[in-house]
Amino acid sequence: AVVSTQSTGEQRGKEYDAQGLTYLFDLDYQTSEGLEVDEGMFTIDAAFYGNTSHFINHSCDPNLAVFSCWISNLDIRLPHICLFAVKSIAAGEELTFNYQIDRIVEEDNRAAQRLSVECRCGTKKCVRYLHG
Question: DSSP state, 92?
Answer without folding.
Answer: T
